[in-house]
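Model: Ready when you are.
Researcher: Fold this.
Model:
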Amino acid sequence: MLIKRFILFLFSLLLACHLHAEVLTGLEVLKRSDFKILEGKRVGLLTNPTGVDNQLVSTIDLLYAANNVNLVALYAPEHGVRGDVYAGGKVSSTKDAKTGLPVYSMYGKTKKPTVEMLKGVDVIVYDIQDVGCRSYTFISSLGLLMQAAAEQNKEVVVLDRPNPLGGWKVEGPLVEKGFFSFVSQYAIPYIYGLTSGELANMLNEENMNGARCKLTVVKMEGWTRNMKFEDTKLPWVLTSPHIPQVSSAVAYPMSGIVGELNALSIGVGYTLPFELFATEWANADSLAMNLNALNLPGVKFRPITYKPFYSFGSGKVHHGVQVHILEYDKVNLTEIQFYVLQEMHRLYPDKDPFVNPKNCKSFDNVCGSDKVRKLFVSRYEFSDVEAFWRKDAEAFREKSRKYWLYE
């Protein structure tokens, strides 16, 4: 009996330790090594406010203060290295007010570092928390940095961080020829199921940049593919102004594509960015009833009425639905927005969200193809798009498996 109790005690202790395990990001692992791989090198850093250690100290400040690190330049993605530029705003090359280091913009006319920008740098460190979606521009900046590094014989070090969508979810088609852009830089699905480090390895080894750079990925410790971000015990720092919480990052792929049409509110400008679908003219109860009748896996729709404070529909009362994810493992995030458009068309067939050619182009670019739109508008039924939308996911998951750093 005593032996059994002892075994149970050990088991419960191990379980408790597992439940309270803290993930160490690539930055934490690099810190623990006293930044060994950066010694004797002139270091550049591509980062933003999400580049922090477990105590919320900036990667910029950590590297700048380290006695054995020679940090000489900063590189700014969308929103800037200190996060002081709004969505879509111009990021200028300047000096960092805190360190005095030069800051080179990688979001504007120049998205790929020039020879002048990398002059005097031996290695560029990348440390950014991403959201796991192809249209989120940080991975485009990472890829173009790697491309420039390959051409200029520079080294790249990626400090890995969790994918808040997990490591299993893969959704959407690959980008097709003619639709590559800064929001669809590579032939990967819309949700690609990799960490930034894993994706960097794949871009490099599959020659998706045309040439391979010297790449080192500093792995996390303690992260597994089935982890939700809350499981990591890591602090969440807003990745951009409209992704203030982890819930916003999870919601982003379920409404961000439709947001390109600028035809309905998706909660941006209100307190629930990317979690809502609403218009001035919809009936919230009817829309919720129609969507819930579809019995989509893992989600329920709740009627909601609200007034956006800014952005689309600012100051006007909107009626629609809030999406509640009840079973994350079952939900098809990206497909929700198409079902919303489908049911809105059934209720209001005279309202066409695809009337603006400019918005349609943005929609196509984010989708990575114009086939999605063309298939959908034939009858406004997701069933017409489903096969195309799902055609690449499983093959990509299998292809990318060899680049997994975590199980």
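Researcher: Now this one.
Model:
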Amino acid sequence: MTKAEFLAKMEADESWAPGWEAIDGVFRALYPGQKPFHYATVSRAVFGGKDFLDGCSIYPSPKGYFHLVTYGMSELYAEPEALGGEWSKWGYEMTMKLRGEKPEDCLWALDLLNNLARYTFTQKRFFEPWQFVDGRGAPIRTGTDTALTSLIIVPDTEAQGLDTLYGRLEFLQLVGITQAELSRLSTREEVRALAEQLRQAEPWLVTDLDRR
């Protein structure tokens, strides 16, 4: 799309959000016919609030888990200055796969994802595949006795990255790990090896709070 075409479409449709549409397109292909459960943030940082994400959608997977995807790490709305970049803002959206009976069982993860977004936006430190996030021994779901205390970051096992009007967009999946598993990690190669080990039991790398 040329800049002139972009500006014309932007003028014709004030609600146009090409980056948002790109994310939706990937997940519509994964979950055809589904309308996701969407949770918008209410205190967005761009307006002086504390939320650095615009929202999160939750898709029930026929494989037996919920698939979460964020909105806000990449460029979402019509921004002519961002057209044709190498990366769409930070270049990724975060995902998680969680067990639960209903979407509301996954809402705790929205705080986790928003905290990670806040870290990136305020510290200018973005995430990449095969990194780990040290939770310093605290459960990833506050107020529970889950043995999962930290996270590894892998390419989403289903959602494929794509080239958008604003540049490349990848989907990075966060996977809960135990303190013992964290103690084995110091390099990206070790994170990759742990991910492959976890996939032996859980091919889709679902984060199960009951896993010990």
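Researcher: Key takeaway?
Model: The CA atoms of residues 50 and 174 lie 22 Å apart.
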